[in-house]
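Exercise 7. Predict the joint structure of the components listed below.
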Amino acid sequence: MPEKILEMQSLVKTYIMGEEEQVVLKGIDLDINRGDFLSVLGPSGSGKSTLMNIIGCLDVPTSGTYYLSGELIRDLPEVDLSHIRNREIGFIFQQFQLLPRLSAQKNVELPLIYAGVPEKERQARSAHILERVGLADKMNNRPNQLSGGQQQRVAIARALVTEPTILLADEPTGALDQQTGHQIMALFKELYQEGKTIVMITHDADVAKNGSRIVRIVDGNLSEGVYNA
Amino acid sequence: MLKESIKMALENIVSNKMRSFLTMLGIIIGVGSVIALITIVSGATSTVTDQVASMGANTVTIQVQGTPLKQGLTQGDVNKIAELSNIAGIAPTISGQTTVAFDGNTMDEITLQGKNDVYFENTEDVISSGRIINTIDTENKSRVALIGNDIANELYVGKNPIGQEIKIGGITYHVIGILQESDSFASADTNSSVIIPYTTAMGVVGAKYINSMTVYIADEALADTTTRQIEGVLTKAFNGDEDGYSIVNMQSILETIEEMTSILSMMLAGIASISLVVGGIGIMNMMLVSVTERTSEIGLRKALGAEPKQIQLQFLIESVVLCLIGGIIGFILGVSLAWVVANLIGTSFALTASTVLLAIGFSAAIGVVFGFMPARKASRLNPIDALRSI
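Solution:
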């Protein structure tokens, strides 16, 4: 019996744009089990970024319910949402989002600082995880001394270091050339094999195929049940 | 968390050296001028008060204008004051005009002063040679005189006047000493005056009244009380007519000087602190630019789990660190300037712990006050919008 870690029911998100009300997500139902590698495939303007923001607890739904690890995510104070993000979500962005002044290791330590992990443990954990993504010899390099692929590996290490419930990746290969993109996808597959839960948002069907399961989002509606074994 | 924030603040300041320096310049100038002014004024104040104090912080001066019924103080009045507690000594002065003569030569319009031993004990450098008037002279109403430099030169050409006789107002005295030559800037010209014991002046010359006197107080802390008691004696002596005399307490003059200079110093510091406000606005401007530049960093930190309070703290620490560095540089410059000025105008230079604390406290406070708004702005950024602004 797979463990359900994410559950969305009739989830609606509307934005007020001036006088007009724009419905971006039109009743999404989505379940994610532990160990899934879910690809959310959709063109730009389909609402996939809004869905990602809600999954990542950067935004809250207008109506419907969203449970993450059994906890109802609603209009909570920012402090509570930031704690949930820190604990549950590992973000991986298209543009890596590394802080240029910090070394690779310091970048990886960042979420641990906000989790209140002591310095010694932070160093040990970040070093260990950088080794895991194959950057043991680049720990003291700054982002501008690393290639795009290496930078994205640092970002993946940063997402992994807190041992979050979900790895949430937004177009993780979007800024990389094809070959580097393949290498990153290979790393994602390894992480999936290790049992990590991954949600990857992309507009690229080829990239989406790497997932164990694909859902399509078009015009704010999710079409479930497209499996890719 | 605090350690990380301080480290990050320093890194950010160092990575924007030129901009950080220009921003700090306002704080440097502001803190520098406040510290320089306060240090210079307090040094000048202590020099002035030292000078006043050297004139006798423990003295009460009484000037007698007299009333139609009572033209001056008598020996009886002096005795009454001497009986009060906390009195170390009384130096009465009788003054008048006289003529002096020696060996057939006469000098007119000579200032005659009657003094006592207490005056000489408490006043330095009165005579250039000979001896001063002592207790025995005062008690015995001795006919001894100290003469001014002009008299010595004119009447005793080619002779040492000490031991010679002199006729003052027709009565013969012995010259026992010569007064210190006074320069033209001195308040009282002693070159053509003679000083005799005031008891002699009263008994022999027939002067009836004491015109002024200096009362020396034993314990300065009780100066106010003693002054009031002396006033009581004087009011009684003049039958309640307060116009007959004036009484000045040196201690209160010192206090007035100190009060005035502290007001002056606060006013100057107030004017200088306008530049601190201008510097603070510079800090606020730089912090606002920094928040805008680092919007995506703020968004990322929030996505990684930073609380709004932690973001606010980080930016607040940056502005406080910036201000503290500026404050320390400004403090060093201000103190150096004060040292140079103190040496140039010859006042004393003293650096107090309160000045150091003032400089540090002021710059930190500016960092908090002017960093607050930008830091709050950063903490309130929506992480989605912030992340999008790549």
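Discussion. The interface with chain A takes residues 1, 4, 11-12, 15, 296-297, 300-310, 383-384, 387, 390 of chain B (CB under 8 Å).
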